[in-house]
Amino acid sequence: VLLDEAGRDATDAFEDVGHSEEALEILKGLEIGELKDVSK
């Protein structure tokens, strides 16, 4: 996912993988922010 989506929003690709609940909990601790909508 990281290489395929490099430089882009990988949210959909990440969610499509079907990560475990444990992986999703780990992710919460790694989040450092959200990207602004740059399409405007």
Automatic annotation (TrEMBL):
- The Cytochrome b5 heme-binding domain covers 1-36
**Alphabetized Pfam families for the sequence:** Cyt-b5
Q: Which InterPro entries does the entry link to?
A: Cyt_B5-like_heme/steroid-bd (IPR001199), Cyt_B5-like_heme/steroid_sf (IPR036400)
Locate the coiled-coil region(s) and give their ranges.
none
User: By its UniProt entry, which SUPFAM superfamilies does this protein fall under?
Assistant: Cytochrome b5-like heme/steroid binding domain
The organism sits in which domain of life?
A: Eukaryota
What name is this protein filed under?
A: 19755_t:CDS:1
Mind giving the lineage of the organism this protein is from?
Answer: Eukaryota, Fungi, Fungi incertae sedis, Mucoromycota, Glomeromycotina
